[in-house]
Amino acid sequence: MSWFRCTALGFFVALYVLAGRWGFDRLGPKDASGPNPLLELRLWVVMGGFLLATVGLTHAAHRPPRPGETRLDARLMTALVLFFGYLCASAAWAPDAEFAVLKLYEVVLAGVMTLGVGLAALRQPADRVLDGFWTIVVTATGLLALVGLRTFLGGGGGARLAVMGGGPNVFARLMGMFALGALYFWRRGGKTWLWIPMAATGVLLAILTGSRGGALSIIGGVLAFLVVGRIPLRRLVLLSLLATVATSAVISFTPLGKALTHSMEERFLKLTLKYQGGDSGEGGVYLSGREVLYARAYALALDYPVMGAGLAGFPGLGLGVYPHNLFLEVFCEGGVLGLMFLGLVLLSWGVSAFRGRRGLDAATVGAVVLVLIGSQSSGDFYDARSLYLLMVLSTCTMAAGLARKHVPSDDGAIAEGAT
């Protein structure tokens, strides 16, 4: 039963992180009336997570935790309840009720799933929870990578890489999760020859999207993995060597080489470092119009500095779909109070992570950093939903890491066995 619960929990968590707003109605002809919430996968995923949470609470009531089992981080959970509660309350002074109701629905889904995962994981072997989660993530994102490559090469390699109606930024984040998942299994069980090239492939596919924010978030996530995982210098050199060989082989011997070079030149060098805009000919950084959204969000926040303009105030006032920055979105719609609650969540997680740093899973922490950095240049509040869930997952599974000892494997990776 424990194996089934851990596998089911990992499946629901991974599906929640990956599914986004995808609905079964996309499989048929487009409906002019708009998406049907009952056909959206996320609703049923959250319901499954809620069901597992009730089972977890019932199970936890019968006995205390054992060594290596997940434990609830009361500090982080309290901060999350306050944050999500305040966002829901801000719907009361929203300027547009229709926009507010739609966003309130997404906030409730994110809150229920985030808190539900912490409760569902109670009294479960943390290793199994993490294995189940990363197994589904690597499998699903690996399939998306294959679909993306087929679509990209079939289209002649001239467009930015994306799949299933999602944008390039979304695909870059998914490839970051793919890379971190490969690093998770490398650190857990070795097989460097398999996992490191897979991680390098995820990074290369992210570059093909042309998403500069996505590339920066992957760099931050991988660096966090290396620091938290305390990867020895010798193994880091081996990792870098294999990643370099895999990258060079892809560039030199596959059709992706030319596309990668073009993406680096156009998206990362010309637009970022040598962009010439307007008639003035003055150099600047091309931000795809985000600077206008940032300015509008900041101005709106200054108009309602304490409590914000209300939930979905940014689109409700006709300023745009969303600001493309998590902190600005919370600031302009929730005010200083909203930022304080968000800061409390980040601080609570940071304190817990520091105190239990020897037991943290490096890949999960890297995923937190990945989503946090990515949410500063892409997506709205719901697109950053995995940030809070990954925080809960990383802290509730710290106990397992504290109970492990690290044993060098034959091929230079790190194998972890229970003490």
Question: Features of this protein?
Answer:
transmembrane; mainly alpha; two-stranded antiparallel ribbon; 16 helices; membrane
Give an overview of the whole structure.
- The chain is mainly alpha-helical and about 425 residues long.
- The model is unreliable at about 275-280 and about 405-419 (pLDDT under 50).
- It has one domain (about 1-20, about 40-410).
- Strand 1 (about 275) and strand 2 form a beta hairpin.
- It is globular, with a radius of gyration of 22 Å.
- The strands form 2 sheets. It has a two-stranded antiparallel sheet. The chain has a two-stranded antiparallel sheet with strand order 3-4.
- The chain contains 16 helices and 4 strands.
- Helices cover about 65% and strands about 5% of the residues.
Q: What can be said about the biggest beta sheet?
A: 2 strands, antiparallel
| General shape | globular
Radius of gyration using CA atoms only = 22 Å
Can you list the strand order of the major beta sheet? 1-2
Please report the distance between the alpha carbons of the first and last residues: 23 Å
Task: Give, in order, the helices and strands.
Answer: HHHHHHHHHHEEHHHHHHEE
Number of beta strands = 4
Number of domains: 1
Quaternary state reads single chain
